[in-house]
Design a protein that fits this description.
Structural class: alpha+beta
Strand content: 5-15%
Order of helices and strands: EHHHEEE
Strand order of the largest sheet: 1-4
Oligomer: single chain
Helix content: 25-40%
Number of helices: 3
Length: 119
């Protein structure tokens, strides 16, 4: 059979990431470069998601490792949203998409999502 089993999409995971200032500047430059060559400006979080996906898809050793374990690479099945992000008043620099406005200083928690800090 040519089609593999259709898997249920996993809920989005929020990752708090701190990166070197130089790296962030390079990512912003790449976003500018990409908007010039593609004609569409990507938001930084969308660009980072795309870059990580492409990196994982191109790592042959990692793909071989997955195959040996009987696993396969899960790729995002939802198109990247292009809407303007909403800044969170409680956490500077954290982007929240599609969440309702804050009430009494607390944002309603989306079902099935987790916030995962990077170490």
């Amino acid at each position: 059979m040519k089609l593999r089993t259709i898997e249920k999409a996993l809920p989005p995971q929020h990752v708090h990431l701190t990166m070197a200032g130089e790296l962030f500047e390079n990512v912003k430059l790449y976003a500018d470069y990409n908007s010039g060559s593609q004609g569409q400006k990507l938001l930084i979080p969308d660009l980072i998601n795309t870059m990580l996906t492409m990196f994982l898809e191109s790592d042959r050793d990692f793909l071989r490792y997955l195959k040996e374990k009987g696993l396969h690479l899960r790729t995002p099945s939802v198109a990247i949203a292009r809407e303007k992000p909403q800044s969170s008043p409680t956490a500077p620099g954290i982007v929240r998409r599609g969440r309702p406005p804050m009430k009494n200083g607390h944002a309603p928690k989306e079902q099935g999502t987790e916030e995962t800090p990077l170490q």
